Each structure stands twice: as structure tokens, then as C-alpha cells.
Amino acid sequence: MAVELHDLDELRRYVADHRSLDGVVVQDIDLTGEGKLIASVSCRGATFLGVDLAPGTMHHVIDTGGVVFPDLPGLPFDAYRSRLYTSEELLAGWEPNVAGSFAESLDMRIYRWASRAPMGTSPSILDALARRLHDHAVDDALEEHLRAYPDVVAVMGGHSVRRTDPMYREVAVLGRSMTRAGWHVATGGGPGAMEAANLGAWLSPADDATLDTALQMLSVATEFESSDAYLVAGRSVRDAFPDGAPSLAVPTWFYGHEPTNQFATHIAKYFANSIREDGLLALATRGVVFAPGSAGTVQEVFQDATQNHYGLFTTLSPMVFLDVDFWRHTMPAEPLLRSLAGDRPYADLIGAADTADDTMSFLLSHPAVHA
Question: What percent of the chain has pLDDT over 90?
Fold first, then answer.
């Protein structure tokens, strides 16, 4: 795997140690003042992504065998970004005390850019290239992030679960328990059940009573469509309890009208929903929990089942349905999945539970199976 250099000090150290940039990937660094340094070494097979170079330096890179991918014009985002997003970055431009200002946040400006091509139509070639470069960069940043987290557990569920619903609290308790167990919680990054899991992870270092205090603070705004009030309530919890634990969100601008929830510390936001959904399920090697949801959540159930059914990855991960009555009667995906699994190895990894405690018990007693 190629060496990747993401900041100037890192690049200087690498050049001092190796006297070459052959074969490396240099990403998202301003090198306009480093012409002398770059000119002193070979760049054979090197790739420069979104790097600012003086014209003469760029010629040296190309002449010695490197490739330079320039910035694309007119984008509200960095197509070559070297790190995951944060909530603060995506909300930049939103003013909590200014009604309607969420529309001016970076998150919404990117969503408007992505919506220039009407649903069902293809974007322009340049826009399509920008999207794919961006999503590849997010893939790369996500892979680096996950190296520190061997046990990832995903919580899927509907955005319509309100902050005052009993299920919201149950999922938050679950996210808290998972984080305390040393697992890295990952969600789709939206509101509802997804926000609840990231909230629980965030509050896991605090005492148990803190969760109910936070839920009371969130109860003043339960409709994510009223985005400013919804975000203000979330910000109030972040401000009141600032020392949260890390968790991951993997949202998409395909559902860009939904605000990315504020309790995930690391956000891998994609343009392509298909890449995002498949990747989120694939990275959850410690298990996937399905809270009640609608079409999107049901789709995710069988996407995850397909990965287990055909052994597409090296790990078969547990699948737990939270709310037995919902998944057996209202939306009977669980019995269908058990019928599909038959006597395949992942059949024993399918569970159903009504509480966070029972969900944790199943996950603890059913570790992932390495195929």
C-alpha cells in the first residue's frame, strides 16, 4: 500500500528520511512555498491530489514521473479531503440564534450543489468526477479511522423515531452500553434511531442519570424538519456535556434534507448512497442492530443478510432485531430472514430482543464468526 502524506511536517520528515517522494501519495497540502524541497527529490510514481504547487514545481513533479490531480473549480467541498468530517465542520455557517440559517451551513450548501441534477438524471461529467473523487477520499479516510477500532457495531433504524419515543431512549441506552463495552458505534448519521445510538455513545463516560437529563433537553424539539430548533436542542446537550466518547456516522447527501446528527464525532458523508449503505454494513464486524424503521431499514436488513449469506467478507456478523413484535408482525423481516438463512452458519447469529440489555446479552454471547 502506498505511503500517504497528509500534512507538511509529515512530508518534510519523509523527504529527510528517504530523499525521495517516489511512489507516495501527497494529499491536500499547500506546497506553494516548498518548491525547493520538492525540486530536490524524484517524484517517480508519486500522486499529488488537490495539492497547491507553484507552476515550476508542478513541472518538476511531472517531469520526474509524478501525476498531479488539480483542484476542480466551483465546488463547495474539497474533493481530495484527507480526513473525515466533524459535526462542527458540516454545520459551519449555521447560527443557532438566526432562524433559517441552517440553509447556509456547509452541509446544506453541498446538498444544494448535489441536487443540481434532478433525481433520476445523471450529473455533468465534471460533477460526477468530483463526487467520485470525494467519495474515494472519504473511503480512504474511513479506512484509516477504523484501524484504531477493531470492534465496530452498527445501529440501523428509522429517522422517524422521535426524541420522546421510548424506543429512542432504548437505542440510546444501547449505544451507551456498546461504547462502554469497548465497541465503536456506527450509524447512518441521520436523526431518529441513528441519532439516539450516537447520543448514547457520546454520553457513555457520564453517569447513567445524564442520559435522562439529555433526553429532557432534547424533548423541546422533536421534529427534525424544523431543523434550526432541532439543532439548537442538540447543541445544548453537546454544550452541557462536552466530554463525549467517539462514535461514527456514515450519512449521505442522497438524504441531504436530514440534518447530520450532532453526536457522532467522526462523519464519513458520501454522495453515493449505495456505497455508503454497503460500506456501513461491511465495516460492522461486531454486529448490526436493527431498530424499527421503514423501507430503508428493511433494505439494510437484507443487504446485511446478503453479505452473511454468501460470505462476501471474512467475517459473519451477528444481526439483532430490536423490538420483537415490530420485526415479527408489523414488518415481519425476522421470520423471513430466518427462513432464508436455513441451516447456513449465520442462522445462529440472528437474534431478537426488546431491550438494550437483552440486545447486549445476545451480542456478548454471539461473537462474530470468521469464515
Answer: 84
Query: Could you tell me if 317 and 286 are in contact, meaning their C-beta atoms sit under 8 angstroms apart?
Result: yes
Range of the domain at 290: 150-370
What is the number of structural domains in the chain? 2
Q: What is the pLDDT of residues 293-327, one digit of tens each?
A: 999 999 999 999 999 999 888 889 999 999 999 99
> Is residue 308 within 8 Å of residue 349, measured between CB atoms?
yes
What stretches in the chain show pLDDT beneath 70? 119-120, 371
What is the C-alpha end-to-end distance of the chain, expressed in Å? 25
For β-strands 315-316 and 369-370, DSSP reports them as: antiparallel
Residue-by-residue DSSP string for 105-117: SHHHHHHHHHTTS
Same domain, 183 and 289: yes
Q: What is the DSSP string of 287-324?
A: EEEE-S--HHHHHHHHHHHHHHHTT-SSEE--EEEESH
Residue finishing a domain among 23, 53, 69: 69
Q: Cα(130)–Cα(35) distance, rounded to whole angstroms?
A: 27
User: Would you say how long the chain is, in residues?
Assistant: 371
Domain boundary among 36, 69, 102: 69
Q: Quick one: which of 171, 191, 189, 190 has its CA closest to 179?
A: 171
| Burial tier of 292 (Cβ tally within 10 Å: 0-12, 13-18, 19+) | buried
